[in-house]
Amino acid sequence: MKCPFCNQDNTRVVDSRPVEDTNSIRRRRLCDVCGRRFTTYEKVESIPLTVIKKDQNREQYDRGKIQAGILRACYKRPIPVEKIEEMMDAIEGEIFNTEEKEISSTRIGEIVMEHLKELDAVAYVRFASVYREFKDVSTFMDELKKFMN
């Protein structure tokens, strides 16, 4: 590993520990040349995942898109950011544990809704109203009735 300060190759690991709730390892390193310390994170490289959209177009998986949808659903709700991050990690874990190279956006939406249902009812309904594209109030009420049962 090259030192980010002096660009030398002579660095060594001083401390190594797993990062909570993620599949990565935090390493503190020391440069033997300049003596400065820096941190690196090591993460398992995952298989590139392709998302099949409703119109059959394919695009690269983007965590940010799911996170943006969840944050919109949780807007002004009493949900700690840590809980949202934990849920994002769980959703991403479930998506990547399928070990498939492609996944439909429909399946991703269902996974997100399962997790939101457990987290917050209002956030779930908000996400479902956009995801399911309710045409009228009766379809919206049908979804609410499913949730209430």
Automatic annotation (TrEMBL):
<keyword id="KW-0238">DNA-binding</keyword>
<keyword id="KW-0862">Zinc</keyword>
<feature type="domain" description="ATP-cone">
    <location>
        <begin position="49"/>
        <end position="139"/>
    </location>
</feature>
<dbReference type="Pfam" id="PF03477">
    <property type="entry name" value="ATP-cone"/>
</dbReference>
<keyword id="KW-0547">Nucleotide-binding</keyword>
<keyword id="KW-0863">Zinc-finger</keyword>
<keyword id="KW-0805">Transcription regulation</keyword>
<keyword id="KW-0067">ATP-binding</keyword>
<keyword id="KW-0678">Repressor</keyword>
<dbReference type="InterPro" id="IPR005144">
    <property type="entry name" value="ATP-cone_dom"/>
</dbReference>
<comment type="similarity">
    <text>Belongs to the NrdR family.</text>
</comment>
<feature type="zinc finger region">
    <location>
        <begin position="3"/>
        <end position="34"/>
    </location>
</feature>
<comment type="function">
    <text>Negatively regulates transcription of bacterial ribonucleotide reductase nrd genes and operons by binding to NrdR-boxes.</text>
</comment>
<dbReference type="Pfam" id="PF22811">
    <property type="entry name" value="Zn_ribbon_NrdR"/>
</dbReference>
<protein>
    <recommendedName>
        <fullName>Transcriptional repressor NrdR</fullName>
    </recommendedName>
</protein>
<keyword id="KW-0804">Transcription</keyword>
<dbReference type="InterPro" id="IPR055173">
    <property type="entry name" value="NrdR-like_N"/>
</dbReference>
<keyword id="KW-0479">Metal-binding</keyword>
<dbReference type="InterPro" id="IPR003796">
    <property type="entry name" value="RNR_NrdR-like"/>
</dbReference>
